[in-house]
């Protein structure tokens, strides 16, 4: 194990841990302070903190399935495999701070956060509600945000020109 791997990987895992911690704290706060189905208006007609449960995937996909337990365990299985794949990629690539590695750390923290909810509570607490003009974005949470930001960073990294080291031994 190289010295750079031992100094960068813990920091990348810290990013994942911070996302997981913020996700848990925020979901616990919402569950304790906002009655289910209610909301606190932060910016009228733009942003509210709500308390809803999502038994499906992103944007409540599959929430109204005829076999909710199959959907739940399918989502748990898929997100667990995805988290393991991201973890393996992070371990293999985690020798430096790169856009890709930071993105993977965000995705890992978000995936674990939502997986925890599905395993422990059978649903995910969503609480961030955004309205932009007449468009209503489906409620989401910190874990969802980390996953989306991570995915956007991965996309951005693929679009940016790659820098090639001048020394092939670097």
**Beta-strand share of residues:** 15-25%
Derived structural class: alpha+beta
Radius of gyration: 18 Å
Number of separate helices? 4
Spatial strand arrangement across the major sheet: 1-2-3-4
**Biggest sheet character:** 4 strands, antiparallel
H/E element sequence: HEEHHEEH
Mean pLDDT, all residues: 88
General shape: globular
How far apart are the termini? 16 Å
Helix content: 55-70%
Number of strands: 4
Low-confidence stretches: 1-5
What does this structure look like?
- This protein has 170 residues and is α+β, with helices and mostly antiparallel strands.
- The protein has helices at 3-33, 68-93, 99-121, 142-159; strands at 39-43, 47-54, 124-132, 135-140.
- The protein contains four helices and four strands, in the order αββααββα.
- The longest helix is centred in the first third of the chain and has 31 residues, at 3-33.
- A four-stranded antiparallel beta sheet has the order 1-2-3-4.
- The radius of gyration is 18 Å and the shape is globular.
- Helix 3 (99-121) packs antiparallel against helix 4 (142-159).
Q: Topology of this protein?
A:
Elements: H1 3-33, E1 39-43, E2 47-54, H2 68-93, H3 99-121, E3 124-132, E4 135-140, H4 142-159
Antiparallel strand pairs: 1-2, 2-3, 3-4
Overview in brief:
By secondary structure, the protein is an alpha+beta fold. It has helices spanning 3-33, 68-93, 99-121, 142-159, and strands spanning 39-43, 47-54, 124-132, 135-140.
Brief descriptors of the model:
alpha+beta, 170 residues, globular
